[in-house]
Design goal:
heterodimer; A: mainly alpha; globular; disordered N terminus; B: mainly alpha; 8 helices
């Protein structure tokens, strides 16, 4: 992430999100290199689900997912670069990194010209310190599962087909890294979906800087 | 990455099923005389074949007939998995790690069965009787069965999601789907397989799952001359 002021402007509180016109968020997303701004564009998540599935809605959801995939992809790449990971943890980061890049590439292809360029991210100690990496990785993977699950009912069948192929692998990452973190790999009988606003807020709470 | 989910599953089975028994039988044609289980799935099979059929015909819960058929199939599948893991837990003969996995996953599958039953309401089907033929008390057969069912269930839910009419049911099934892949990744790690191999997981059809179930002979045969006795509830 860039800096704290960016974070705050990029992820408005939920009340603000619904009070302001959608265009403001979209503009923020298009303007800034601020990574979270991409997610804030979707913060009025109710607007996503209110209409039935459509190709246009699939694109909005995919654009949202792309920010997450870019973020995770950069997170693993930077952690591997800093070289603090050893053994199975390093193997996990290698595999997950490769998968997230493939996910981002698929979403980019689907979005075509409307896809945003890869943002710049800074993750601070979570890519430098073993313990911080494990905690953040587990949280990011769980969050990705929740984000995709939250949109399952909003996608066309075509969009859903791609999303399920991806979220299935995110859930594998989540179980794997949770096992490495000594957390329950499958903590609940169901993985509840979260709306875009909740996902953006959760990312903000991670303080990835 | 393999383009063929069947090939991918075959590879997984090859890695864990060294004597080939499960893979071999899974490849066999769907037997015609599977008694109670086939009757339970009769509607599901028909719907899987012709999902475009009367789209507006609704079952008791207000879901389309195709959706009811899919949910019924899933309910029987969850009964089977719940019973398998519950029995393993009751007998307690597996290694502590496997037993720990089974205990958690069993609780999840019981919850899934309950949730699907509620979705179905009056359209729910009762559980068939199961006979696991000792699989629940032997480490290796149990693990290869568990991996096969968890992997194939996750793949099946992907296939079904594209055929469901109701967005509400799609959203509900999605929350179960990712848990099944967590189970699969977890047990794979326990036995030393990489938890996540491909960047994308692929769907597998309902008939593929029906073949796997048939191959295990877990659904107990019942004498046809014994009258209309209610099945024993094991789920």
């Amino acid at each position: 992430m860039h800096d704290e002021s960016d974070l705050q402007s990029a992820t408005p509180e939920r009340g603000d999100a619904s009070a302001q016109p959608r265009g403001i968020f979209l503009k923020r997303a298009l303007l800034g290199g601020a990574s979270l701004a991409g997610l804030a564009a979707f913060a009025d998540s109710d607007a996503l689900g209110s209409a039935g599935p459509s190709a246009a809605q699939d694109r909005r959801i995919f654009a949202f997912a792309l920010v997450l995939e870019d973020l995770k992809s950069a997170f693993y790449a930077q952690a591997l670069e800093h070289g603090a990971l050893r053994g199975e943890l390093r193997r996990f980061a290698n595999v997950a990194s490769k998968h997230e890049r493939a996910h981002a590439a698929l979403l980019r292809r689907a979005l075509g010209r409307s896809a945003r360029p890869t943002p710049q991210f800074r993750f601070g100690r979570s890519v430098r310190e073993h313990a911080a990496f494990v905690t953040t990785a587990a949280r990011l993977e769980d969050l990705a599962v929740a984000a995709y699950n939250g949109q399952a009912g909003n996608l066309t069948k075509q969009g859903l087909s791609s999303a399920l192929g991806i979220v299935s692998v995110e859930a594998r990452h989540a179980a794997w890294i949770r096992a490495l973190a000594d957390q329950a790999p499958a903590p609940r009988a169901a993985d509840p979906g979260e709306g875009t606003a909740e996902v953006a807020a959760a990312l903000k709470r991670l303080h990835l800087r | 990455m393999s383009d063929d989910p069947q090939l991918e599953l075959a590879r997984t089975l090859a890695a864990i099923d060294r004597d080939g028994a499960l893979a071999e039988t899974a490849a066999e044609a769907f037997p015609r005389t599977r008694g109670g289980f086939l009757r339970a799935l009769a509607g599901a099979g028909a719907a899987a074949a012709g999902l475009a059929a009367p789209a507006r015909a609704l079952g008791a819960g207000g879901w389309s007939r195709g959706d009811v058929a899919i949910l019924r199939f899933d309910l029987v599948l969850e009964y089977l998995q719940a019973a398998l893991y519950t029995e393993a837990e009751r007998i307690g003969a597996l290694t502590p790690t496997t037993l720990g996995w089974s205990r958690v996953v069993g609780a999840h599958e019981r919850a899934h069965a309950q949730a699907i039953k509620q979705l179905l309401g009056r359209d729910a089907v009762p559980s068939p009787a199961f006979d696991f033929h000792g699989v629940t008390e032997q480490e290796k057969p149990f693990i290869k069965t568990a991996v096969a069912f968890e992997e194939l269930t996750a793949a099946l839910l992907k296939w079904q999601a594209l055929r469901l009419d109701s967005r509400e049911i799609v959203a509900a099934v999605a929350t179960l789907h990712s848990v099944e892949t967590r189970h699969a990744a977890w047990i794979r790690r326990i036995i030393g397989l990489q938890p996540a191999t491909n960047a994308f997981d692929r769907p597998a059809s309902q008939s593929r799952m029906a073949r796997l179930i048939a191959s295990t002979h877990f659904v107990a045969e019942r004498s046809r001359t014994s009258g209309r006795t209610r099945p024993k509830y094991t789920g």
